[in-house]
Write the structure tokens for this entry.
Amino acid sequence: MFVSDCLGLNDLGHLTIGGRDTVELAQTYGTPLYVMDENEIRRACRSYFDSVKKYYGGRGLVTYASKAFCCKAACKIVAEEGLGLDVVSIGELYTAMSVDFPPERIFFHGNNKTVQELLAAIEYGVGQIVVDNLTELELLNQLAISRKKAVSILFRIKPGIDAHTHDFVRTGQIDSKFGLALETGEAMEAVKEAAQMKGVTLKGLHCHIGSQIFDIEPFEHAAEVMLNFIADIKKETGLALELLDLGGGFGIKYLPQHDPVEYDRYMQRVALTVRRTCEEKGIDMPFIVIEPGRSIVGPAGITLYTVGSVKEIPNVRTYVSIDGGMGDNPRYILYQSQYEAVVANKAVQPKNKTVTIAGKCCESGDLIGEHMQVQDVQVGDIIAVLATGAYNYSMSSNYNRIPKPPVVMLRDGEARVVVKRETLEDIVRNDLL
Ligand SMILES: *Cc1c(COP(=O)(O)O)cnc(C)c1O
């Protein structure tokens, strides 16, 4: 009945997550509050893990894109589930290493890694550095030689696929800040340069075509384009690349009408495409990596808020103001993202109100959403915004000097705080006079 399987109703008519009463959680930990169901996260990890095993045998790896939700607990859970990890900054890398994440299962992404970040990756023994451009390639090669370390790399490739349109279109040359273009010959040039280098070993290629994608076709198409390029590389240079990272981007259900593809079906179809293309091209099937972020943690999280005011503007709209907003969920102000909201203490009642849920920051655009269907909402009610597990905590800020909410993790219904609520002392911690 709700967008995520971990949500439900109890005898009091309250919304539950992981079997726990959300109203009680709000009372215990205060609001605003992020709540995550660890069982749901582990379920998602296992479902990806099992699919990859089923369709690629032992020749595949699921890496969790940590930017979706990164903290020590998240890295530890993912490590225990046998997944790899994507990081895009020294902060994410440091978080992972602080819980002894196996460095060989880490992939370091980013379009402008600093010298400090590259050196940290080399020193930690990060398994694969995903090189974005020729400048980075040369820099990394020099750093690896100077540190006398062998570094395995992938190249980030722009496959020229627009996955944001419903019917994907092949664009001649995509406009993106990430990666090396195929069409211009830039990618092939990079491969040839890397082949001459002593500090780096080119193991494979990577692409990531977008996010919150509901279709399978763009993924199949991307796999084809990438395998064709691997075949071209073999023909032109004799180099047989052994790894293909097909990125993440699998859509999740934010609204009841959303209908994401089943990940197992995605995996089955893409695996078929991979096998067929390899046969056609006469190349060995590479080791396949996929990188889900949102779909691992998104459905597992909700955010709880307390309603502070309800402002009815006749014939215009009703503003429901909550004690959080763009500081803890900037996705509406960034890209008008849509969410389902529920009055947690009235979750059993029908949704008979259409409201705009507004945050408390000094920005008119600080909304959780417009035209949201909710129950008869009043001051003091607890509002739950659903499926906020991805790109909420990880994108949070201290705008207006509002302390960040804590993250409570539920395991088999047992609650523990995995990120503490920020204090006012935290807010001024780095201030100097
Ligand atoms: C963001 C990102 C992902 C994860 O995307 P989701 O939409 O969260 O699955 C995977 N790989 C790369 C390189 C990314 O930048």
The pocket of pyridoxal-5'-phosphate is lined by residues 65, 67-68, 86, 109, 208, 211, 247-250, 291-295 (CB under 6 Å). The first strand starts at residue 7 and ends at 9.
